[in-house]
Design brief:
Chains A, B: InterPro entries: Dehydroquinate_synthase (IPR050071), DHQ_synth_fam (IPR030963), DHQS/DOIS_N (IPR030960), DHQS_C (IPR056179). Chains A, B: Keywords: Amino-acid biosynthesis, Aromatic amino acid biosynthesis, Cobalt, Lyase, Metal-binding, NAD. The structure is a homodimer of 387-residue chains. Chain A is of the alpha/beta class and 387 residues long. Chain A folds into 2 domains: 174 residues, Rossmann fold, CATH 3.40.50; 165 residues, Dehydroquinate synthase-like, alpha domain, CATH 1.20.1090. Helix content of chain A is 44%, strand content 17%. Chain A is built from 16 helices and 11 strands. In chain A, strands 1, 2, 3, 4, 5, 6 and 9 form a 7-stranded parallel sheet that branches. In chain A, strands 7-8 form a two-stranded antiparallel ribbon. The first copy, chain A, has a two-stranded antiparallel ribbon with strand order 10-11. In chain A, strand 5, helix 5 and strand 6 form a beta-alpha-beta unit. The interface between A and B is large, with 71 and 71 residues.
Amino acid sequence: MIKESINQSFTVAYRYQVHFTKALFSIANPVLARFFASHATDIMAKALVVVDDGVVEHHVNLLQEIRAYFESLQGIVLADELMVVNGGEQAKNDHTLVDRIIDAVDRHGIDRHSYVIGIGGGAVLDAVGYAAAISHRGIRHIRIPTTVLSQNDSGIGVKNGINYLGKKNFIGTFSPPFAVFNDFSFLQSLSDRAWRSGISEAVKVALIKDAVFFEWIAEHAGALTNRDADAMEYLVYRCAELHLQHIAGADPFEFGSSRPLDFGHWSAHKLEQLSGFEVMHGEAVAIGIALDSSYSYLMGYLTHADAQRIVQLLQALGLPVFHPLLDAEGTDHPLLIGLDEFREHLGGRLTIMLLQGIGKGMEVHTMDASRVLAAASMLQNDFEVQL
Amino acid sequence: MIKESINQSFTVAYRYQVHFTKALFSIANPVLARFFASHATDIMAKALVVVDDGVVEHHVNLLQEIRAYFESLQGIVLADELMVVNGGEQAKNDHTLVDRIIDAVDRHGIDRHSYVIGIGGGAVLDAVGYAAAISHRGIRHIRIPTTVLSQNDSGIGVKNGINYLGKKNFIGTFSPPFAVFNDFSFLQSLSDRAWRSGISEAVKVALIKDAVFFEWIAEHAGALTNRDADAMEYLVYRCAELHLQHIAGADPFEFGSSRPLDFGHWSAHKLEQLSGFEVMHGEAVAIGIALDSSYSYLMGYLTHADAQRIVQLLQALGLPVFHPLLDAEGTDHPLLIGLDEFREHLGGRLTIMLLQGIGKGMEVHTMDASRVLAAASMLQNDFEVQL
């Protein structure tokens, strides 16, 4: 009558739209109004909006525009508090912002059919998304990423997280957003450094997935660094598309060990941390891509010409390929420590994405310490010194 | 070239086994050893074990048995700290226990391929499951429920959570366990009150899903209250089976408003809270079942005979069907306040499960206040007074 065990098995279907638009909160723009209308019920929904202070600083009328836009909508009402919060890594360095949002969810009676809307860079969205994911076991979360990096990478994906004792994304969940609105207008106010730094994630996804996109980036490197809006919009769009395809294709919640989209990231995380986040994520990823491309060459997986092209493209895009913090020697080299930490993070077994060609990734489970250091040396010496 | 939007859509597959056994940590019991062997890799896995102090109190050799059992296993090593934590609702009333577990996850280097194992009642498992779900975006979580209530209901399901400012499960996630081990031996040490109280969830699931199971419970009411182990084991098994079937069947992560398994729960939550959790969850659910059954009769959905049978079965099982805290009048009656809070919790629109027969639930979206109070009166007066 009683079996030894019951096998439970089910699937959960997720669906969300990533919209591409400009001037999202202009009354003339119907994108957001149409979205809310399509989800309207006979119950008034509520929206709690959390905005990165860096965005408010450059868009001084934004809060007013948000209020006016929501006043024009039926079926949804804005919480009477627009939360403006500190942006950058500090947003996710501790539990403070998350606690503030949970408190606001409680005070404003935001329920599972209401919305928590985050507007800002990747760090703010990571913290807001986490707070939304754990409140009432998951409130509808809308992301409005405002940087190149968040529009083409983290902001459209399924992860959130905050740091714990300096450990990046130690706390977080896999929680797909309810919708994403990429508003290209926000990109105009980015500093040159922030504008460029997000391009490295596009180079990354092109290198592991799409040689044609890599060629497109190479052809448009000048336009991109000269802040050509059309070029950047296509870059963001195509990068987002490849990123989304990857997530939908295999293991969206990373139950396995394979994380192709983390190409170039193992060393990037260490460098960001060592620099006290002075090095921007996109810059660290550029260095990480250059390092793993050079390593791929030294291991005989990638031709010298291809590795050199990658490094030269990153340089042409105004991105760094080396950092003085990596100028060290011996077994306590930051890269070797970072590799050990990453191995431990993965539970004892490395899975690292490398390249066997432009547009073609390959996974390995060991890395040769001396060749990692040799790859770093090559980058320090303008790709001239070889093993 | 750039579309207005990209539709992202994917499914995530979940699978876990719920095992039924006795003396799980006896060296002679191969169930857990087989489980770990089937998940072994070339990397040594780690296990962090968190135990409810109420369990340790009644099973004084348990910690020693756990250590000995793990020493007999290959491929997995126990963290050198067995965490014994306060059980009962206090485990989830604030963030303290969750923080302790996150700290231990960090200190012991528990990664996404290692295990956090919770042993205890529903409240401890809710807190441990939540801590596991947010650490590294989800560590493998094994549940070993030790009460009737957790073995047949919360411990085998997909939710976790902690309370926030007295609001039950305000913070939490939907995160299926990696595996569940229901060890019937733990039930023997339960107090009579705890033993009986878990039976109400079985009555609940029988009432909305399975008339045959209801008849079985009615036939075995005497055996169940006399602590017949075989009867209780079948009750736990069949209740778990129906519960699991329901979760797998529709909307496991409750994206919609329908929550059939919450039959009898809207008033139960209020009563638990009002009593300062002096009323046990299962007792409050018994009262909630009696109330909603009586209400179903008063609304003409259920026959008087069926409603009376339900109330009499609960009484025969030694469960309460009324509580003095519900002896009140007027619009500030705790039940009407509770109904309002529940409506707000659902975002403004009620969805309540009622009965249209034994084994047959039906959902409604409004409740008649005067008939709710009349149903309470009936229960107070031994099911004699009617509207």
